[in-house]
């Protein structure tokens, strides 16, 4: 008998698979927890965890960098375990639960609890973040033209969370105490998990996101089912990661090669060398067309690392600058962390419309130019922040408008680079290593935090005074921002000059 039953279409909403909106809200709340906590993190370390140290800024910069690096590096492992064993759904649940516990542990006022909590978030994010992003991709068939706009909608969700969280968690932290702020972050994560779970209950995702085979979770390792062994290993890794995070002291003497470096820095040096060696091997083995494209993929990953390295200063040195040197009336320093996401929400649709318009006129800049311009925006944004010292009052406080302009510009830069980069990596990498290159793309954010740590340590103020700031710190910060501006602008000029050549290497890829 002829089969007349059509295959079940996934349910649709507003022209997109309905599942997108469940993932949108789950990620919105996950990022709410991530950025709510991040807004408080540096200030909490400086004012509470390391308050008694004269080197508290240095310690905070080191831990912030280690946390940021590990929280993004763990995504490479989480992505792989999901592909091979757990599947996206289980990974998202495991990651979300670990993150929620991490945020609640942060609500306990104790320094050991602090590092355990950060480690839980590192492991949890490793399972959650890469898998929810790939889940979005899996809702669309490969050639579905709605995929890009699906990701734009998803990026919006990320930033709605990133906008609301610093405002709310920052307010709670200020009015009622740090731990209420962290607690709210935990509640946000729980709402994210419940959203995802309700999507599964209503069978919104069909058969997507399941483990690669039906029996794989039951396969034993060392006599224990894999489905159980992985959560056990994930939890067991927490004390080790907590130990790494707490090792903020530099290993070398002053003046030596390792004068600022701790164990995590060394680990990332080793990873960088290993990746470099592996990429050279792949480049040698590739055929000439593959090699050209791969060089471009490596270059754009390198450029985005530099960009995030300056951009991610927001949760660290820029938050301290806001606390110590910016005249804030409506919001406090932690809440300034909402500005980047606010601009992304406002600008992402106009900028994507601009690119579509230019595309129609065949005038849209190709990827390397977009990257060069993105870095230029970052450079100008820091240049403006460095100029703020000229408008400081007699107490060394600068107008809030500088921060507003700075965040506006760097957010424009972000929209020139971040959404474009991800899809270019898939276009430019040979199929057999595309998953590896995606991993490297996430590692770019991890390495960026090493840059953040380096800059943060250079600009660390030695003091235990809660009210340090004003004229004492203004010049240090604004000179530092001036240097960042020079590096970003220098990088942008190099990229723009090299763009015609990079364009040639890209062949047909736009
Ligand atoms: N703001 C984006 C997010 O949270 C990208 C951050 C990054 O990769 N450094 O997903």
UniProtKB/TrEMBL annotation:
<feature type="transmembrane region" description="Helical">
    <location>
        <begin position="341"/>
        <end position="358"/>
    </location>
</feature>
<keyword id="KW-0812">Transmembrane</keyword>
<feature type="transmembrane region" description="Helical">
    <location>
        <begin position="400"/>
        <end position="422"/>
    </location>
</feature>
<feature type="transmembrane region" description="Helical">
    <location>
        <begin position="58"/>
        <end position="78"/>
    </location>
</feature>
<feature type="transmembrane region" description="Helical">
    <location>
        <begin position="228"/>
        <end position="246"/>
    </location>
</feature>
<dbReference type="InterPro" id="IPR050171">
    <property type="entry name" value="MFS_Transporters"/>
</dbReference>
<feature type="transmembrane region" description="Helical">
    <location>
        <begin position="370"/>
        <end position="388"/>
    </location>
</feature>
<feature type="transmembrane region" description="Helical">
    <location>
        <begin position="476"/>
        <end position="498"/>
    </location>
</feature>
<keyword id="KW-0653">Protein transport</keyword>
<dbReference type="Pfam" id="PF00854">
    <property type="entry name" value="PTR2"/>
</dbReference>
<keyword id="KW-1133">Transmembrane helix</keyword>
<dbReference type="GO" id="GO:0005886">
    <property type="term" value="C:plasma membrane"/>
</dbReference>
<feature type="transmembrane region" description="Helical">
    <location>
        <begin position="32"/>
        <end position="52"/>
    </location>
</feature>
<dbReference type="InterPro" id="IPR036259">
    <property type="entry name" value="MFS_trans_sf"/>
</dbReference>
<feature type="transmembrane region" description="Helical">
    <location>
        <begin position="112"/>
        <end position="128"/>
    </location>
</feature>
<dbReference type="GO" id="GO:0006857">
    <property type="term" value="P:oligopeptide transport"/>
</dbReference>
<dbReference type="InterPro" id="IPR018456">
    <property type="entry name" value="PTR2_symporter_CS"/>
</dbReference>
<dbReference type="GO" id="GO:1904680">
    <property type="term" value="F:peptide transmembrane transporter activity"/>
</dbReference>
<feature type="transmembrane region" description="Helical">
    <location>
        <begin position="296"/>
        <end position="321"/>
    </location>
</feature>
<comment type="similarity">
    <text>Belongs to the major facilitator superfamily. Proton-dependent oligopeptide transporter (POT/PTR) (TC 2.A.17) family.</text>
</comment>
<feature type="transmembrane region" description="Helical">
    <location>
        <begin position="434"/>
        <end position="456"/>
    </location>
</feature>
<dbReference type="InterPro" id="IPR020846">
    <property type="entry name" value="MFS_dom"/>
</dbReference>
<feature type="transmembrane region" description="Helical">
    <location>
        <begin position="266"/>
        <end position="284"/>
    </location>
</feature>
<keyword id="KW-0472">Membrane</keyword>
<dbReference type="InterPro" id="IPR005279">
    <property type="entry name" value="Dipep/tripep_permease"/>
</dbReference>
<protein>
    <submittedName>
        <fullName>Amino acid/peptide transporter</fullName>
    </submittedName>
</protein>
<keyword id="KW-0813">Transport</keyword>
<keyword id="KW-1003">Cell membrane</keyword>
<dbReference type="InterPro" id="IPR000109">
    <property type="entry name" value="POT_fam"/>
</dbReference>
<feature type="transmembrane region" description="Helical">
    <location>
        <begin position="90"/>
        <end position="106"/>
    </location>
</feature>
<keyword id="KW-0571">Peptide transport</keyword>
<feature type="domain" description="Major facilitator superfamily (MFS) profile">
    <location>
        <begin position="19"/>
        <end position="503"/>
    </location>
</feature>
<feature type="transmembrane region" description="Helical">
    <location>
        <begin position="179"/>
        <end position="200"/>
    </location>
</feature>
<feature type="transmembrane region" description="Helical">
    <location>
        <begin position="149"/>
        <end position="173"/>
    </location>
</feature>
């Amino acid at each position: 008998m002829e089969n007349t039953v059509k295959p079940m279409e996934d349910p649709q909403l507003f022209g997109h698979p309905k599942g997108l909106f469940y993932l949108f809200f789950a990620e919105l709340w996950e990022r709410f927890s991530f950025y709510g906590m991040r807004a408080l993190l540096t200030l909490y370390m400086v004012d509470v965890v390391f308050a008694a140290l004269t080197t508290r800024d240095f310690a905070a910069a080191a831990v912030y960098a280690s946390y940021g690096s590990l929280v993004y590096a763990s995504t490479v492992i989480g992505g792989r375990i999901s592909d091979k064993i757990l599947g996206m759904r289980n990974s998202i649940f495991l990651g979300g639960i670990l993150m929620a516990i991490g945020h609640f542990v942060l609500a306990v006022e104790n320094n050991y609890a602090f590092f355990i909590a950060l480690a839980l978030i590192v492991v949890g994010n490793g399972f959650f973040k890469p898998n929810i992003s790939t889940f979005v991709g899996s809702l669309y068939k490969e050639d579905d033209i709605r995929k890009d706009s699906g990701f734009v909608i998803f990026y919006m969700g990320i930033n709605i969370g990133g906008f609301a969280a610093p405002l709310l968690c920052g307010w709670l932290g200020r009015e009622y105490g740090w731990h209420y702020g962290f607690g709210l972050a935990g509640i946000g994560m729980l709402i994210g998990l419940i959203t995802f779970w309700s999507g599964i209950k209503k069978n919104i995702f069909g058969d997507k996101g399941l483990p690669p085979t039906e029996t794989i979770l039951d396969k034993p390792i060392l006599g224990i089912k894999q489905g159980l062994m992985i959560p056990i290993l994930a939890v067991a890794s927490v004390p080790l990661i907590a130990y790494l995070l707490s090792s903020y002291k530099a290993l070398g003497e002053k003046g030596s090669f390792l004068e600022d470096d701790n164990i995590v820095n060394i680990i990332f040096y080793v990873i960088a060398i290993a990746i470099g060696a592996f990429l050279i091997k792949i480049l040698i083995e590739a055929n000439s067309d593959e090699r050209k494209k791969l060089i471009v993929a490596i270059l754009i990953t390198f450029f985005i690392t530099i960009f995030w390295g300056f951009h991610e200063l927001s949760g660290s040195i820029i938050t301290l600058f806001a606390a110590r040197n910016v005249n804030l009336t409506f919001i406090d320093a932690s809440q300034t962390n909402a500005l980047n996401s606010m601009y992304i929400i406002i600008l992402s649709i106009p900028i994507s419309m601009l690119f579509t318009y230019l595309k129609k006129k065949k005038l849209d800049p190709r990827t390397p130019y977009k990257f060069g311009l993105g870095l230029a925006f970052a450079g100008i944004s820091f240049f403006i922040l460095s100029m703020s010292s000229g408008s400081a009052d007699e107490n060394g406080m600068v107008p809030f408008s500088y921060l507003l302009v700075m965040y506006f510009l760097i957010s424009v830069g972000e929209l020139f680079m971040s959404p474009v980069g991800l899809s270019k990596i898939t276009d430019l990498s040979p199929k057999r290593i595309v998953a590896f290159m995606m991993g490297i793309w996430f590692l770019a954010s991890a390495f960026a935090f090493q840059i953040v740590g380096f800059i943060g340590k250079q600009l660390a103020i030695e003091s235990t005074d809660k009210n340090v700031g004003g004229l004492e710190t203004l010049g240090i910060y604004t000179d530092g921002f001036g240097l960042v501006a020079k590096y970003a602008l220098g990088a942008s000029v190099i990229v723009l000059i090299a763009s015609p050549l990079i364009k040639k290497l890209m062949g047909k890829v736009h």
